[in-house]
Amino acid sequence: MKRKLIIAIFLGLFLMFANRTSTVLAAEEILPVAELEVDVPNFSEDAVPEVESVVDAAAVPEVESEVDADAVAETESVVDAEAVPEAESEVDAAAVPEVECEVDVDAVPEVESEVDAEAVPEVESVVDVDAVPEIESVVDTEAVPEVESVVDAEAVPENESEEQKEVNQEKEPSEKINSRVSEPVEESSELLSETDVVSKLDNAGIEAREAAKKGNGPKNPLAITSMTVTGEYSFLEEHTTVNLSIETQSSLPISSYTYCILEKQGTYQVIYHGETPQTTYEFQSSGDYQLYAKVTDTLGREAHYIHTVRVYDLTPSVSIRVDNVPVADTKIHTVGLYRFDLVVNRAPQGHQTQMYLVYPKGNYQVMPVNNWLLLKFYYPGQYIMRADVKTGTGGNFKRLFPFVVSPAPNIEIKNIIRSVSPNEALNAYDNMTVKADYNSPFEIKHYTYCLLDSNNNYTVFHYGQNAVGNVRVAYPGDYKILVKVEDIYGRSAQRLSSLKVKPINPRLALLIDNKSDKTIFNQTRYKFEITANNLPVDFKTNMVLIAPDQSYRILPTSRVVHLTLDELGTYTIKAYVRPYLGGEFTHAEKFEVTLVPLSISDLRLTPQPLRIRQESNIQVDAIGANTIKTVFSYWLKTPGAGGYKEIIQIERANINWTFQSAGEHKLIVVVARDDGDQVRYVQTFNVLLDLPWAEITQIKPYNCEDYGAMAYGIIMNDGTHVFIDGGINRAKWDSQYSVYSGDGTIDPVYSYIKNKMAGRVDVWLVTHFHDDHFGNAANIINNCSDIKVKQFVGVTPTYSDNLPGIDFGPYMQNTLNRIKNEGRWREVRHGEVLHYGELSVEVMQDLHQVSNRWDFNDTTTVFRINLGRTNKKFIVLGDLYVRSGDVFLYNHSADALKSDIVSVSHHGIKGVNPIIYDRIRAPIAFVPSFEHTYTNSFWLYQVKPAISRWANLIIHGMSGTYTLRVE
Fold it and tell me: pLDDT (tens digit, 9 = 90+) per residue, 787-799?
């Protein structure tokens, strides 16, 4: 009965197609053919009439009578009550070919003789699942033409007879016939939305799921879970191969995969049909595409999937820019050099470019393979630049860019723009800007501006790439400005313009102490300055001073000088003002110099402190006392006296005086000038009763080794400070000097000068330049800015002195050079006597008395210090050696060498012949030596006995720093 029912349905449909009746559904609702790919059983030609004869009007009721109550209810809910009768009369005529093309006429006999139990379900599996409960997808209310392929493979098995089941079981799976995808069919319907299509196609699996519920089919339905479309780039492009693949969910093996493209006209295009889940495809144009996929498992079940992709236009954007401007907007001339850039956008990686230049006559030239090139055109005309772009994924795109090359116009200077108009005169020295106003299509390389005088002599006042020049003219007159421009291709143009320059009259003046009118006194220092107003440029001056007696002197080249004028009368200053741009102006101005008012600025009494029976100097600083006759009267009031007594009247400003009493004194100095001007000055002071004294300190420098080191400090009662040599204060491991020694103590020499001498040395005597004598002096000079030394005294060895070892070390030499450069060195010779306050220094020998200097110690200078009014003499032998000692002994008698204090030679060892100490006969002896030399045999058996015969006080360096007070 079921078989008859199925045959009746197909027969009825066939008759409807034959009658070309209209279908109930609208054309636009018919599913695209690509979505209706099904496996259709084969029928023989003889089977068709049989099908037609079986179906009659009672067939439909018979189906209804054999369906259970639940099925009918389900059917009624899905199928329109009027759908069945309308299906017979309103089948779309256009659907018939679809049925006919799906049926293989050779297959009909197979159906007739041997109906496969599994073949019919394959037909039934495509029936709309909403049509009949058990044949869930038999009739689609909106697409009757699809009934041909709407039979679901699992819809009928519930109503199959036992005979049919046996036949199906006996039939081998290899005998199943798979349908093939139809060729594209012209459809008038629009492309359905993805939601509608998927909704309809998903219904194809309902029957299978229903069958699974009843135990008649696989437990897990067949489904496509996802579709993946990937290309070479992040977005899909035309002419680019893409990969298509799907993921499925199925309990049975997949027998076939089908990919189609659904087109807007309702047609489809088969991409792939086969047994693998992946394929590739190349889109030929851009746009939005719907990809349709279908899979079929070994049971014949189908699943469908729709995926939308967007394909982008692969056509590249090609343009040419000339000097960074689009070629269409560029003016190209002959002679010029232009850069052509080929700009390609929206092209895939790996694209190739090539440019061709087509000349006006039609011939062409292949340009170098590059995206830019430099071109120079020699002939005008219409040119074309062809740009070819070949993409790596296919496609060769050609673009033509026409452009015109025009003859290069000549450079034209239209005008010369000036900050002063052509009708306006320029003042001398005023600044004027000049600029060329020109026409040229090319860049200007050089601007040259010249100034021509009336004799056509020219001066270039501007040359370079800047278009603006500046000019100042010093001399008035008529001029011309020549402007010349030259472009980067060597073409040039020039133009002349007239210029008139007016003279100026600067206001020159003489200022004295910044005033134009001032009384000038003699013996007073003034500032003389020449000023120039209305002169807009800088200048220099030469001034000449003409004295009252018409003598003159040229003043320094400056607009400002400082002068003190002594002669009274009328002076003239003549100034020559010379601007830096040229030209000259003169100015002469007279002024009177009168007597300065008489005044006393200071009165000094030296030395300080004053003591009785000590000759003192009284110096008066009187202003205005030198021009005319002036008398100085000195009045003194002594302690205990009732009044003042005039001690002297004299025409000079200083006198020497010896005070005979101690205590407070008052001195009045009266200064009277012949013009009647008179001034007085009063000063109070004390005269001390103290006797003269001197202190000699032998300083033990820190870290002394070997023979020791020599350093003496002398402080006089008049405040004079003397230092001799200085020793050394650098340990062997200490390469950098510091006032702090290794144990943290302060350098004794530095400490003595800083504390005892208040950081001041009036004279520093240098016997010679050995490190143990001058080393610490060099250290302190170079490193201690708080020690001030007024003068150094000594004798410098030179190469002309024929010394075997003249080089006494770079450190000493550099220090000596510095002292000399600062003007603090005094070179002395044998026989000179130097005076410092009460103290005097006698040079008793220098290296030039020794003709054969076999040792550097022979360069020693011997000093003898006379300690002022103490009448004591201190002789310092330094490192006087054997040969130089013999010369010294030969040149001086015993009376000449007699001294009160002696510093023994060379630390007491290897020194001079001991007979010298018998000549000196000093009651006090300093030995600048330490532990190492204290036990030396020369000291013990020669020097010590010699000085002990006369000295009742021997001060050895081993005892440390020692101060001897001499009165």
Answer: 999 999 999 887 6
